[in-house]
Amino acid sequence: MAVSRDPNVNQAMCPSRLILEHVTSRWGVLVLATLLDRSYRFSELRREVGGVSEKMLAQTLQTLERDGFVHRDAKPVIPPRVDYSLTGLGKEAAEQVWGLARWTEKRTDEVFAARAAYDESKERTAR
């Protein structure tokens, strides 16, 4: 697949949009951020990322591995042992999205206040 020499995420067919979608998806952000700490086995990662189903975690890991963000290390032992860790590219992406995630944690009260003000304004207008 040929890639544009000048990617522009605002262009409809820009290939960077799909990468952005993978990195900033609900589970993508949380998986990347969690793997910043250390490598995890699948079951550990699932416990750490609250609310993710086994299927969604497997899909997210596979997508992030395909994009070059996650390294899957399958050890030839019985029972099988598979560890997931970040690649250099994955660490860079994880640091970016983790900064945004931390920012949202800090600004939650302000967002809730803005929502309440917006909803109240809409209710007054509807009357």
Write the topology of this structure:
Elements: H1 16-24, H2 26-35, E1 40-41, H3 42-48, H4 54-66, E2 70-75, E3 81-86, H5 88-126
Antiparallel strand pairs: 1-3, 2-3
Brief synopsis:
With 127 residues, this protein is mainly alpha-helical. It has helices at 16-24, 26-35, 42-48, 54-66, 88-126; strands at residues 40-41, 70-75, 81-86. It is built from five helices and three strands; from the N terminus they run H-H-E-H-H-E-E-H.
**How many helical stretches?**
5
Strand order of the largest sheet: 1-3-2
Please state the average pLDDT score. Answer: 92
Structural category is mainly alpha
**Poorly predicted ranges (pLDDT <50, ≥5 residues)?**
none
Strand percent estimate: 5-15%
Question: How many DSSP-defined strands?
Answer: 3
The rounded distance between the terminal residues' Cα atoms is: 55 Å
Question: Main sheet?
Answer: 3 strands, antiparallel
The general outline is: extended
Q: Order of helices and strands, N to C?
A: HHEHHEEH
Global Rg: 19 Å
* Share of helical residues: 55-70%
What does this structure look like?
By secondary structure, the chain is mainly alpha-helical. It is 61% helix and 11% strand. The protein is built from five helices and three strands. The protein has a three-stranded antiparallel β-sheet. β2 (70-75) and β3 form a beta hairpin. The longest helix has 39 residues, at 88-126. The chain is extended and about 65 Å long. The protein starts with 15 loop residues before the first helix and ends with a helix. The model has no long low-confidence stretch (mean pLDDT 92).
